[in-house]
């Protein structure tokens, strides 16, 4: 079975990607510094505890496991934190990616799958986003991811083919609850709602109720994590088939407001969601919804688990389990 190096494979999306890779017949080799990931999330292949800031550690992992491709999930990923400490985001995300790209090329690897973000678009209210939308990030997180996209384009002529995925909002958990979402601190809407319902934290605060949307709250395009990682496996097979470097926006095209997510969660959990209305959160775009079907038409991606009830049911099952 061919090995695939999965940086950040102990994290939320990376761990789900490892399961999808294993199911598709690959061996995921996790490279993770465990700063936010969980050792117990690494269930589908070996774990190398290492840091992307150390080139020698990457070289050693590549020499030992000889992967055919790299999936790069590892990154600092909080918008608010990136505004408070931009240097850390620019240093660790960009330098880490540069080390990884150089190490991959030196090891003769020619396939690279990268987790980017629609935060690279910035705040473009009213624009339905697709792969051709101009990228104008408004925070250091989005800026650092855009820099890595540019880096990949610059390195492509050196022989590193890439597939870039610009994520929308990722939610849900493995339907078999083998892996799930466990951030500390938790900042994401769905787990915060479920923790409020379970009483393991206080009421949810809705960040802003005066936006120019039908119910006044922000609108996002939510994708089931298991669907998202299937796009990555399809991206890997795209490169294995010798196809060109590409960018995909794997969104569903359906937008849900914060209040709609809360109402759906109340229905799925059979409980009221304790909540209060609060002020807007700095840096929030009003509406981020995908307007592209390129991942479906070109990759054959079918995000059929990405209905709001299914995402909430799977997340709820995971949150009711023992976790990691
Ligand atoms: N949100 C909220 N209260 C919270 C956390 C999030 O109202 O405690 C809102 C947030 O303002 C955004 C949406 O929920 O409109 C999704 O936020 P999340 O942090 O999950 O993802 P983001 O869109 O920032 O990537």
From TrEMBL:
UniProt keywords, alphabetically: Carbohydrate metabolism, Isomerase, NAD
GO function terms (MF aspect): UDP-glucose 4-epimerase activity
BP terms from Gene Ontology: galactose catabolic process via UDP-galactose, Leloir pathway
Pfam families reported in the protein's UniProt record: Epimerase
Domain of life assignment: Bacteria
Cofactor annotation: NAD(+)
Keyword hit for NAD: yes
Reaction(s) the record says it catalyses: UDP-alpha-D-glucose = UDP-alpha-D-galactose
Enzyme Commission number(s) of this protein: 5.1.3.2
Domain NAD-dependent epimerase/dehydratase: 4-247
Pathway assigned in UniProt: Carbohydrate metabolism; galactose metabolism
Family: Belongs to the NAD(P)-dependent epimerase/dehydratase family.
Quaternary state and interactors: Homodimer.
The name this protein goes by in its record: UDP-glucose 4-epimerase
Species whose genome carries this gene: Ponticoccus litoralis
